[in-house]
Amino acid sequence: MTLDEVLASLFPGGHTLERGEFGIVHGVGGAEGGPIALMGVVDRTPLSVDGALRLASHVLAVIDKGGNTPILMLVDTASQSMTRRDELLGLNEYLAHLAKSLALAAALGHRTVGLVYGHAAAGAFIATAMSMQVLAALPGAEPSVMDLPSISRVTKLPPEQLAKLAKSTPIFAPGLGPMFAVGAIAEIWNVEKPLSGQLAMLLQQSATGRDRRDQVGLTREGRLQAARISQRVIDEATHV
Amino acid sequence: MSTVFQPHEADWYEATARERITGLLDPGTFLEFVGPEQRAMSPHLEQFNLTGAFDDGLIVGGGRLNGDAVFIAAQEGRFLGGAFGEVHGAKLVGLLRAARDGADKGGPKCVLLLLDTGGVRLQEANAGELAISETIQAILEARLVGVSVIALIGGRSGAFGGGGIITACCSRIVVSQHGRVSVSGPEVIETNKGVEEFDSKDRALVWRITGGRTRALTGAADRYVKERIEDFRAAAIALAARVPAFTIETLAAEQHRLAQRVQQYGDCRDSPEMWRKAGLAEPERIAELSDDAFLAIPQLKDAHHDAR
User: Fold this and answer.
1) CA B291 to CA B226: how far, in whole Å?
2) Domain coordinates of chain A in residue numbers?
3) pTM value?
4) Predicted ipTM beyond 0.95
5) Domain A3-139+189-209 has CATH 3.40.1110.10
6) What is the DSSP secondary-structure string of B161-201?
7) Interface test with A, best of B30, B110, B130 (most A CBs within 10 A)
8) Does A237 contact B94 at a Cβ distance shorter than 8 Å?
């Protein structure tokens, strides 16, 4: 689906969306429960220091307004911007600032929802989609940490062997299925039905206030260790 | 020559993760959680013909720093580049959640993160990426209830990839000259954008772009220290005493601080250009100075801040 198709299906009652510089968009979606603050990085644009800063400013503006307007983050980004300039300026601080802004918005009562409808990779995936309370994806989405050829280069395993391994475990392979199995993605939406209803359903669920993705990964049998190990550390740390 | 390990005097860069913990904390106070005797190892490495480690390259536990109870986590940069895998990451997430949950029950109010990581362990990339995101959320949840999280970076793997993002989510950041902090590593940039964009074999360039001195001068780190473990310890004690609150005021100030940096230095290609703009003497020589001489340089305007 294109961004326009996604938005039309999400907001049959209308929306505004301003396409800004650095691949950053922001606007407002009309929904039955009230307006939803829209923002995102689109057109597969790599997320740069400028883009992350712009996106964070939109999050902070929502917080500044008060209330509990939900935030919907639309994500289609190649990865973080891989340039010398970005790293010289300290891209890590800019991506962290965005993640922090989103966490604070959630802590102050804004429901934060991500929707990956295109690409999402590496550090840009962490600072946008994965920094939301709940992450949904469309069936055509392509979330990843790194593509298989690059993983092949680093692990020194031939691509054919990796592709075979990827069929037996979701732990490293790129793509929607594996990311769903390990618990990174809460829901994969059905594009045959209006997205508005699926967003409304998601917004109706009460926020737990806690990150439960390791439990989800355990339930889906895609990430069996994480929840148990973190709990064991908590148990030992609490009984000192 | 004595081969007995002298924890406080030892060099952070050369030390193992366990030696750093020993030297950083008050003597004899460290208690490990889910230690190596429990064999909490990665189940994913064997299929890549890699040998695992009994602690999966991350040590977590509790102890005392200058008399105060703290939690501490240290990555072993020599095991798979200190990279985040499923077990490795889950141990860190568990420690941070324990700090969050215990903060109002008399638990430690400070977590020390001894980062030494190349980022995600690609053999378990999805679990590693998620662990980094869960770590970030857990740090921020801990900060929200008043726990301070101090990052200490000066190992051979630096803090790259998601490790760089985690760094900047902490309340305070301590670096030494070796403390390289970045998202995309030089090799990754060279592979994607070509050697003209970033020559990863040019070590001096790598230091100038990502090194601890650049991070300290621009305020991307809060404290620059010499290489000894006791210097890291002194900085951790000093910084843990007062940290920025995780509030809208702090983030508004950070928004301003980061926007200023882009505005002032956004057209620079290398750090000496930044130092020249900032009016520092002999900008080309910053990288060559001794630590003492470097520490005598005034930091750039806005480098001292609570906007983090």
Assistant:
1) 6
2) 3-139+189-209
3) 0.97
4) yes
5) no
6) THHHHHHTTSSEEEE-TT--B-SS-HHHHHHHH-TTT--TT
7) B130
8) yes
